[in-house]
Amino acid sequence: MKRDFLHITDFTTEEILDTLELAQKLKAKFHDKEKYHVFKDRSLAMVFAKPSARTRVSFETGFTWMGGHALYLGPNDIGIGKREAVKDIARVFSRYNDVLMARLFEHKHMLELAEHATIPVVNGLTDYNHPCQIMADILTVLEHRGNIDDPKIVYVGDGNNIVHSWLKLAERISIDFVCACPEGYEPDVDTVSSAKDAGLSDITISHDLRSAVKDADVIYTDVWASMGQKEEATAREKIFAKFQVNEKVMDSTGKDTLFMHCLPAERGREVTDGVMEAPYSIVFDEAENRMHAQNAIMVKLAEWSGMI
Questions:
Q1: What CA–CA distance (Å, rounded) separates 257 from 219?
Q2: Cβ contact 293:132 at 8 Å
Q3: How many C-alpha atoms does 63 have within 13 Å on its Cβ side?
Q4: What is the pTM of this model?
Q5: Which residues form the domain of 193?
Q6: Rounded Cα distance, 88 and 71, in Å
Q7: Is 80 strand, coil or helix?
Q8: What residues are annotated to the active site?
Q9: 13-36, pLDDT tens digit by residue?
Q10: Cβ neighbours around 215 below 10 Å, total
Q11: Do 210 and 170 fall into the same domain?
Q12: Which CATH number does the domain housing residue 166 bear?
């Protein structure tokens, strides 16, 4: 039976831990220039309704390193949900390809792709969530802390798709998760409730940055206005000004705190250049780990779906 990765909760706790272990092994192989052609004669279709340099490069490089061929379909190549029905695209690509990765705006389109595809579907991002990013993030936390035993993760900024994915992870792995955001920019209420109801993690939504970051193991931020929200950028800059991650914020936690950002960063807005370049910034380890986490996700899906 084919498996998809649309939400973190599509994997059990044990499967998440197994995937992280595999990602570490694949990372070591990649650095040692070992051949790992598990996807020899296989192809990955990459559908981009929402452009991204990192997502394209990480998936394409990773799948190629694993012996396969990755095909890029940009916003001008395929009008998903507009020029052609989502379910038609899912069926056609399932006849050509072995894995389908999509980076879309509407989450309902991702769900429809997976429903009608007969090959594994990987969520490369929707407006609702970004599960590959959070798998890379927790892998990076594991590398730098040596464990992922109840880390305090403080996300600062808009309650967006990154926050939703952290909340989904909180249903599978015990973390102390705080979202520090301006009033009116909280994450989805149902997603927060689901994370709390799971009873595994501590979940806090705060509007007080100073108290939120106390004892943080990680401070995490993202742009204040995502793609599709740029017309709100000027207004958001005023609203979010007090939620900038700067050196003063990093110094106020009371412990040695790591800084993370999913990129691209708008330096001087949500984060200062000094924080981005500081020794405690693990942003570029995090960026590299996108590829290794994604590689592990695709290998696991292929194994569980009986492809390899």
A1: 7
A2: yes
A3: 26
A4: 0.97
A5: 133-286
A6: 18
A7: strand
A8: 262
A9: 999 999 999 999 999 999 999 999
A10: 11
A11: yes
A12: 3.40.50.1370
